[in-house]
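This section describes the prediction task in plain terms. A model, or a person checking by hand, is given the sequence of a single protein chain and must write out its three-dimensional structure as a string of tokens. No templates, partner chains or ligands are provided. The sample shown here is typical of the held-out split.
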Amino acid sequence: MTITAAPESGARTAHPEHLRRVVFITAAAAMGGFLFGYDSSVVNGAVEAIRDRYDIGSATLAQVIAIALIGCAIGAATAGRIADRIGRIRCMQIAAVLFTVSAVGSALPFALWDLALWRVVGGFAIGMASVIGPAYIAEVAPPAYRGRLGAFQQGAIVAGIAMSQLVNWGLLNAVGGDQRGELMGLEVWQLMLGVMVIPAVIYGLLSFVIPESPRFLVSVGKYDRARAVLREVEGSSADLDGRVAEIETAMKSEHKSSFKDLMGGGFFFKPIVWVGIGLSVFQQFVGINVAFYYSSTLWQSVGVDPSASFFYSFTTSIINILGTVLAMMTIDRLGRKPLALIGSVGMALGLAFEAWAFSADLVDGRLPATEGWVALIAAHVFVFSFAISWGVVVWVMLGEIFPNRIRAAALGVAAAAQWVANWAITASFPSLSEWNLSATYVIYTVFAVLSIPFVLKFVKETKGKTLEEMG
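The expected answer:
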């Protein structure tokens, strides 16, 4: 994959009259992130219904939920090469088609095996969106706004998560709280999964109204079109010929990084590659996706009725959005490292209180009132702390910390580590929670605490630096 390194020494900012257009282009590309969040989280509303419909245990259920991550890993690993061959826009359109097909198939499964298959297809689309969106945005965003525009991806992801929970809650209430109740001739969980057709189609349509990346256009010799796109995002006063020449020169001098380039040092990979892997793993091992994949099941397991559990999932998603917006507003001011540290402390506190609350014995199948309120508040504190920090910081830093000569390959390894860590948490939670829910949250707390010395010792600040200054 070569799509993440973009030259930056030319025009440093967009003219104000063109910034609005750049924001629209960024938002349209980030629609893939919205689908990423929606598809990842919508299954939260279907977990218990799938368990009941197919009469499966926790281990099998976990694999059905987590199997989408296999598609994610494949999609992320191949998206860069696909985009380099056919363009960023065509890659977005393929992802939109896959999201649509996955939504229809998941809503109308014949059996458990093909439900799992459609989740893999949707996962492939998520993987593509997770790579193409940030890469495309980096190639069209002026450097002065790169942090904030790059954060659009995470903003869109959390918006997709919130929308999926709102849709789930609304559909559940429409059938009186019965997760297998019928609506429009289908069980309500099937509609939850099928509604994703709507944003998938919108994403596909938006891909026809935004321009191709100037970097890709230069790579295939379409110089006039590249100048037109640069004029569109940087203004007519920019030195268009100079910018095209700059992009071409940078691409010719680029080293096509490979897995072999990442090797070095005493621990197989170069140290900076381990930093990227560490950021990815810590982001997942704090258990954030438990909140998005299993929150309704979690609340129901401690006595909350289904309708209320879906509502709490939605309020958590709103907190996620608020935290993400705050991070987007401050990441270029406070810096990446301070935000990560603040978030780590907040996550550790929230998770620790959740672990304490879940250690209480259930009374009539419910947590005692005090522990119940503590668990609910702590869950929101945890999600907010993640949103203002690791949710945004990791996506931004993975695009910034690696030297140009290894950026593409290193990003691929870091992304793979993130999906593997995501799978490990997603697949293990149902069984771990049945074993000991409180101890499960103690494990997540330990990782949140360990992330603090990791950031202090190994993570360098990248605020205000160009990609070339990373080495």
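For orientation: The chain has two domains: 1-254, 257-471.
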